[in-house]
Write a structure and sequence with these properties.
alpha/beta, globular
Amino acid sequence: MRLQGKIVLVTGAARRVGRSIALALGERGARLALHFNRSRREALRLASDIKEGFGRDAAVFQADLSDARQAARLADSVARRFGAVHVLVNNASVYEATRFGRTSPKDWDRNMSVNLRAPFFLSQAAAPWMRRSGGGKIINIGDWAGERPYTDRIPYCVSKAGLVALNTALAKELAPDIQVNAVLPGAVLLPDDYPPGKRAAVIRAAPLKRLGTPRDVAEAVVFLIEGGDFITGAALPVDGGRLIA
């Protein structure tokens, strides 16, 4: 699939990795549906940057993906605005510390609803639109920690492990006309308040001995869309080698 002129929905597009993904897709000629929950100002700025920088159509869409009904309606809203949905990038994610002894049912449900349930219902809603256009692509943004969980974020890690399983299940369910793949980022953008000592430890733990960048993830997404027509059900680590360390 060539991105030129294709309609792409990116969830959690306004900031951080989502922003880099959206910019990379706009650069390749995609028409962007930019989802946000609370970051309206950043989403509008991104839409403006895409229009001015690449001359591509871009529109913003608000939805709280912890609400399954809003997640399901999002794809239909995009299709009504653009006339189709060709690609879905499930990027939106909750990422927060949840210590084992203090994790509440609300913490658990928030991670599962946004990180795992929303990608399913978005895919369910987008798939018919993709089939009307002759096929499509779904890219799930997971995490290397879905394969190797770490402490203090158990709900997050389990939700991302579930996303890997969902990725495989959707690839089987939606074949042959829709390809479904995942990108598993490692340390590409640490939290703003990450302590210097922990930051150094993360770098030491990676075989490549450096942090990645959001652009590394974005380029993997572009590859799976434009170069991955014979790839489905794959989970591509973009982690500096952490999974093999």
